[in-house]
Write a structure and sequence with these properties.
Elements lengths: L6 H18 L9 E9 L2 E3 L2 E4 L2 E10 L2 E10 L11 E8 L1 E3 L3 E11 L10 E13 L2 E10 L4 E14 L4 E14 L10 E19 L2 E19 L4 E3 L5 E12 L1
Antiparallel strand pairs: 1-4, 1-16, 2-3, 4-5, 5-6, 6-8, 7-8, 8-9, 9-10, 10-11, 11-12, 12-13, 13-14, 14-15, 14-16
Length: about 260
Amino acid sequence: RQRPSHMPSRLSRCFAALLLAAFSAGAALAADVATSVSPAWVSTAVFRGQQRGGSALQTVLESVGGDLGGGIWTSLPLESAGAFAPGTEADLYLFRTMPVPGRLTLTPGATLYTYPRAETGFRRATFEPSLALNATVAGVRLTPKIYQDLTLRATTLELAAACAFALPSLGTELDWAVTAGTYLRRDDGAGFAATTRAWGNYWHAGVTVPYQISAHTRLLVGWTYAAGTGASVKIAGGGRRPDPRAASRGFVSLGFSSTF
């Protein structure tokens, strides 16, 4: 019998210690807290290169004050989620923005993913700390990030880039975003019959056009192409096979964002 690796537990302990230190060392909550709500309809629900179902209503409620922020992200399926999707989702998240030398910012954070209507074989909740470094080069915001899901014993490495191109004649802009990542989950627990390892790569590329409706409200129209590549699963006692959740498709989103 193969001995389990101690690497996941070491990573988990490191992330737990880092998260505790980041949120206990002089965090400041400003007197003025900005809150925003952003509901959107998406034609396909996709997460890190994996399809989570068809169309859905996804809403973000977020508050930021000082260097602390947090909120809740929800996804309500409007059609069948499919055999390997958890359905309704509600995620609580928290983050802190910390300046570091070189005009960079460090953002430790954590997300509690919950799936209240998940069927047998799915995890009802997972907990994922993360750490991101933010830099802006020639108008492009670059964000390398690492996630460590303590429940799934999953490590995800990701690099995101974002930039905006102004369209002054139209009174708007094009907000471009590209993300690429790779992951390894040692205990997938997502609808399969046994403990499952899952690994693969993904990338997303999209553009959003914001239209200012009022001083505090914007209409957001977007299109994204998402692809999961090299996605595989290995069920305990079996061989490697393609991950049926991998997605390669485009989808549209329509929503608005209001700040108060």
